[in-house]
Amino acid sequence: MEQASTVSFLTAFAAGLLSFLSPCILPLIPAYIAYITGISFDELKGAQTSAIRRKTLVHSLLFVLGFSAVFITLGASASYLGKLLVNYLGLITKIGGTLIIIFGLYLMGVFKLPFLAREKRLTFKTRKGSMAGSVLFGITFAAAWTPCIGPILGSILVLAGTRNSMPEGMWLLGAYSLGIAVPFIISALLINSFLAQFARFKKYLVAVKFICGLLLITIGILLILGQLRPFSLL
Length: 234
Description:
Shape: globular
Helix content: over 70%
Number of strands: 0
Strand content: under 5%
Oligomer: single chain
Distance between the termini: 9 Å
Largest sheet: none
Number of domains: 1
Order of helices and strands: HHHHHHHHHH
Mean pLDDT: 80
C-alpha cells in the first residue's frame, strides 16, 4: 500500500496541533469537554474521582472518533478526485500550492477574505453525556469547523488531492486528526492544568495564527516546486 511521505505526515500532524491551538478552538476546549461529558464545569475543576476521569476519557475518545471520521472521509474524497484527474496532476499541484499560499497569507493578516470572516459558532446547552451524543457532537464539530481553521484544513485537503492514492489521503487526514486529538484528550484529563496554562498562553494566540500562516506558505511553495515527493516512502 502506498504511504504518505514522512514529511507530509508530520506536516499534517503539525497542522492539526496548530488548529487545536488556534484562537477559534483553544478557548472553547473547556466548554467542549463539559458538554460531551455532561459534567458541570465546577465538577471538572474540582477534585476528580476515578469515575469522572474514566467518563471524561471515554467521551473524549468518542468525540475524537466523530471528527476524525469526517476528516478522514474528506481526505479519501480529495484523493479520489485527484486520482480521477491524474492526467492534470501537475496543474492541480501548482494551483493547489498557490491556493495554500493564499490561505497562509490570509492567516498572517496580509489581506482579508470576507467569506472566511463569517464564523459558525457551536451553541452549548446543558445535557447528560451519552456515548452516541459525543460521537455526533464530534461530527458536528468537524462539519461546523470555524473559518479561521478552514484554511489549515483546506490546505491539508489540497495536499491530499495531489495524491493519486485514496489510502494516502486518508493517512494524511488521519495525521491531521491525531494532531487535534492528542492535545484534546490530554487537556480533558488534565483540565485544571489546562486552565492554568491557557491563562498564560492566550497572549500568544495571535503568534500561533501567524505561525500557521508560515507553515501553509512553506507547504504551498514546496508543493509548487515538487519538493514533497522526494521524501516519499513509496
